[in-house]
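pls read this protein.

:::
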Amino acid sequence: MRHARRRIVRRVTRVVAVGGLLVGCGMVAQAALADTAPPASGTLSTASPAPDTGTALTARLGTARTAGSWIGADGRPVVAVTDEDTARAVRSAGAEAKVVPHSMDELKSAVSGLRSAPRVAGTAWALDYRTNRVVVRADSTVSAAGWAKMSQLATKLGDFVRMERAAGRFTTRLNGARPILSSGGRCSAGFNVTDGRSDFILTAGHCGPTGSVWFGEDQSGPPLGRTVGSTFPNADFSLVRYDTGRAGPGADVVAVGDGKGVRITGAADPVVGQRVFRSGSTSGLHDGAVTALNATVNYPEGSVSGLVETDVCAEPGDSGGPLFADGVALGVTSGGSGDCATGGTTFFQPVTRALTALNVRLITSAGVSGSAARKAPAAGATGGAVARGAAKPGVSASPAGGTPARSLVARITDPRNVGPGLLVVAGSAIALAATRYIRSEQDRRAYRRHYSANWG
């Protein structure tokens, strides 16, 4: 019965996330915003940035004396250091210090050696700050000869380079069999951005090259947008310009199910150990933790570096979907291994790097944000001390105060909202309503528990 229900949910969510509507996976835009009206004044709250985070400490102390930072189980920042003098400096700044044998310079030198070697598809590597190692993973497609080749290289680079086998295959999360969103395949929308003249969808680069045309689910209506800039491999991001030029109302909201949304207030780089959330058109909302930064994945199509590694699950069709925490945009889904039934590893393109490279700004609840409008949230707000499925996704947006929000059906049937995308909006609305009731009760309780302070 549980498997049957999962199949039903997946079929419904495929209908929900279409084009510029981005309902249930990315930004809620245009007429589909009805059940996610702005809250009354004073209902928004976000975690304050830590005054001196682990990331700031490593930047100040230098890569020769430190080897990364992460959020500990108690929510405090932990900094890896190479000597006791540096450890004292870290402790005096209010963080925890862990003395390790290898500096960040040594770890990065090993990574440079891996990058300069011939590429082996199906491998990935990342800096594991907590174990002071470089972890190299090989998926099920890597042959015995390929494994032996990488193992020999790892041994030459140093005993802190560890080889591991990964279950499944490292693939981009694109479903090319049934292209719903773009001419390149079915993906999920990420965040709405702007260059000051036009609005765009920020999504994954592997979803389609420049010139790809994006449609609604049935693809019978006018295009919702076109890809005007795409980078893949090396990095994994692209811009889809709205054909109307504007994202529409609610461009700053990420839908999380049950008719609720999270308002995006800025962008930041994630921290190892930080609790994060990912939303996608196939598998919906899931949470987990950041496990590594600056990861490299050798997909069959090519290598992508500078990615965020997480233990959040994802499935084909989730590509491009948003990664966020505490109302802060962190990344867009690139690829990984596994699925949401058995778990897996998922990699994300950092948002801040994509915004800088594309010369666009995030559209946020406070207006238009710069590429890094906010620092990373305070450690205590997003730390790993929170159980999976029980963390607070971020700033909630719900009907609160003022005039009650009109129902989605009422907005759709309003003659003022009739337009070319009406049928797509209606289909998305029906699917969204169905998804609310089909989503498992356990997930409902977990997320409602942490939204209740703002939901009203």
